[in-house]
């Protein structure tokens, strides 16, 4: 079974690389969509939307940072009590993308206790294999 990232690579085959401008437009649209969901207190849809189509093909740190800020904003709005239900509703591909963001956010060493709880939930869901897949994937978020 293919991961979301492999499906995206297959979908983009023959189209050539996505331009940085297109990625910036997608991120801006994603940010607006996520903010709309957060305003409605629909955290589940905000989380799902924030994890869709991460800019893994981008070589620009600013674009990756902008998308990471969206995910971080959603995570900041979610209480520890809500985490288990929201993680449980994610598909495997989205949970692995979220795991990549968890590792990215751990580098900052902020909100470590929340990130460790989230990490435990994601590993419970995806198993130890999800850690291996995320750590060995060269496409970063």
List keywords for this structure.
mainly alpha; 141 residues; single chain
Structural description of this entry:
This protein starts with a helix and ends in a 5-residue tail after the last helix. The chain has helices spanning 4-12, 20-39, 43-51, 61-77, 80-89, 92-106, 112-126, 128-136. The mean pLDDT is 89. Helix 2 runs antiparallel to helix 3, helix 2 (20-39) runs parallel beside helix 4 (61-77) and helix 5 runs parallel beside helix 7 (112-126). It is mainly alpha-helical and 141 residues long. The protein contains 8 helices and no strands.
Give the mean pLDDT: 89
Main sheet summary: none
Going by helix content, strand content and strand pairing, the class is mainly alpha
Give the overall shape: globular
Query: How many strand units?
Result: 0
DSSP helix count?
A: 8
Question: In a few lines, what is going on in this structure?
Answer:
The chain has 141 residues and is mostly helical.
List the helices and strands and how they pair.
Elements: H1 4-12, H2 20-39, H3 43-51, H4 61-77, H5 80-89, H6 92-106, H7 112-126, H8 128-136
Helix pairs in contact: 2-3, 2-4, 3-4, 5-7, 6-7, 6-8, 7-8
């Amino acid at each position: 079974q293919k991961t979301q990232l492999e499906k995206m690579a297959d979908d983009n085959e023959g189209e050539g690389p996505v331009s940085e401008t297109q990625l910036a437009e997608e991120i801006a649209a994603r940010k607006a969509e996520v903010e709309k969901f957060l305003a409605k207190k629909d955290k589940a849809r905000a989380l799902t939307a924030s994890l869709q189509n991460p800019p893994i093909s981008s070589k620009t740190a600013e674009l990756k940072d902008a998308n990471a800020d969206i995910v971080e904003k959603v995570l900041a709005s979610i209480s520890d009590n809500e985490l288990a239900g929201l993680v449980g509703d994610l598909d495997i591909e989205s949970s692995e993308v979220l795991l990549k963001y968890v590792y990215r956010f751990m580098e900052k060493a902020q909100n470590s206790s929340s990130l460790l709880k989230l990490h435990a939930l994601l590993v419970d869901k995806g198993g130890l294999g999800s850690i291996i897949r995320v750590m060995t994937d060269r496409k970063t978020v």
